[in-house]
Amino acid sequence: MIPWILRNRIKSLALLKESGVNPYPHKFDISMSITEFIDKYSSLHVGEHVENTEISLAGRILNKRSSSSKLYFYDLHGNGAKIQVMADARHSNMDENEFCKYHSGVKRGDIVGICGFPGKSQRGELSIFPRSLVVLTPCLHMLPRHTVTSNSDEAQSKKKTRNHSWTPGITRNPETNILRDQETRYRQRYLDLMLNSEVQKIFRTRAKIISYSRDFLDNLGFIEVETPAMTMTAGGAAARPFITHHNELNMKLYMRISPELYLKKLVVGGLDRVYEIGKVFRKEGMDLTHLPEFTMFEFYMAYADYNDLMGIIEKLLSGMVKEMTGSHKIKYHGNGFDSEPVEIDFTPPFRRIDLIEEIESRANLSIPKDLSSETANKFLLEACEKFDVKCLAPHTTTRLLDKLVGHFLEETCINPTFIINHPEIMSPLAKWHRSKPGLTERFELFVNKKELCNAYTELNDPQVQRQRFAEQLKDRQLGDDEAMVLDESFCSCLEYGLPPTAGLGMGIDRLAMLLTDSPNVKEVILFPAMKPQD
Asked: Does 377 reside within a domain?
């Protein structure tokens, strides 16, 4: 059933069309944006008008009020900024009757074009005083309003909104939002962006994170590339892929779980420094920090190792946080807005802990050196049972170690922390450690107990790579459907020679969560995956 407001507004538009008026004009010429208007005229004095200047602006009306039939006030929003429109019949090109009739029909949500002059009201608010105002696109629905339960609540809400201007790195206050229902916000993101000023800032911050990362690598001589999103094998990470079908080739394809193997093929080809920013797809559970579709930032650097990358990522992240927030320290509601925020310090150098040594120290264990043995597997299973660490079947050594890392190490990583030197059995694409047998030159960067980056000195011996893939096959046969599969085309590529190389992958979504004080990953994704509504 069509809501009565929508039905009435459609009827009004039909009457306009019948009278020869087009309620959807094709174009409106603007002379400046609302942001430019504010920058240029905010220095005007209280009560000052510049009537000999004509300016045309456009935007969406989100608030309307009137003190008489000859004076209307609007809040005009556009591109994340807002100014007041002070529509006075004395300045209008319309006569008083036309003025009253037209402005009484302008609604919250309408997109309007205004020609007028700048000035400040007697209360000092920067305004545009229209000579003419035309509705460019009518809004056919009633927009939500800020819901309050009492006059004191309303006053408190206005005070919060006035005093709380959010910027990256500081805590947010969702109570200042006009639209608060989470389902509506995520399903109708256009309403969320329209009504909640912080939301536009969140996605502008996300865009700046990507721009900063891009510029950082460009200045180091990297080039940005694009690799296939559909592949014949799902390689480059330990994850379950989504499967699709190519009709023309009549073959099964996988949505990529990582661009890693393609990027290393480019390094073999002579592109020594490459990076890609793009979507990857993994069949994972959905929770506050996981979605099946997310944005990955990966780069590969020839003639470098994991030590070099630790320095590079420290410089990238500390510089980004400093530039975007003015400090190396941020506040983050990691446990939800109902809990106290934690302070996270991105001041370099970041803490480093050795994976095996730290587990042994914290759990008072002596883990067998040969992690590929049955003895090691049995030892780790008993350790998980001893410390009540849950690990679902299959109980492969890799999965058991990963659960112990989560239990003993990740919980200590509030400030950025490198967990380094993972066992070979956990790192099939990483190069063996040059001085610690059985380990690899790999690190994971954790912030606020969550993985942000994964990196290593790349394995470039094709024979060892085939052997690692074979070991992964054993885990897959035991039921681990996230174990990697053999990619023969990649192994063949390595036979032509991959130079000493280091590579890193970083999750853009999780980094955006940290810098925008968003405890739910859906807050930083414009259109997150949602269950269908009935």
From this structure: no
DSSP assignment letter at 432:
B
**Beta carbons within 10 angstroms of residue 381's beta carbon:** 15
Tell me the residue type at 40.
K
273: containing domain: 202-350+415-523
Whether 188 is covered by a domain: the verdict is no
- The secondary element (H helix, E strand) that includes residue 329 is strand 329-332
Taking the mean position of all CA atoms in its chain, how far away is CA 45? 40
In angstroms, the Cα distances linking 120 to 85, 123, 162, 526 are 10, 8, 19, 36
Residue 131 and residue 207 in one domain: no
Going by the DSSP 8-state scheme, the letter that residue 300 receives in this structure is E
Q: How high is the pLDDT of residue 154?
A: 45
- Does a cis peptide bond (omega within 30 degrees of 0) precede residue 462? no
Q: How many Cα atoms within 13 Å fall on the side-chain side of residue 100? A: 6
Q: What is the 3 state secondary structure string of 151-166? A: HHHHHHHHHHHHHCCC
Give the separation between CA 425 and CA 480, rounded to whole angstroms: 14
CATH number for the domain that contains residue 479: 3.30.930.10
Q: Are residues 10 and 97 in the same domain?
A: yes
CB 71 within 8 A of CB 59: no
The token pair that represents 266 in the structure block: 């480019």
- Tokens in use for 139? 């809004």
Residue 504 and residue 217: Cα distance in Å, rounded?
12
Cβ(509)–Cβ(528) below 8 Å: no
Contact 188, 524 (CB under 8 A): no
Sign, Cα dihedral of 483, 489, 492, 493: negative
- Residue 287 tokens read as 């929770």
Number of domains within the chain: 2
> Omega before 168 cis (within 30°)?
no
DSSP 238: S
The per-residue pLDDT for range 208-266, each reduced to its tens digit, is 999 999 999 999 999 999 999 999 988 888 889 999 999 999 999 999 999 999 999 99
Reported pTM: 0.92
Distance of CA 229 to the CA centre of its chain: 20
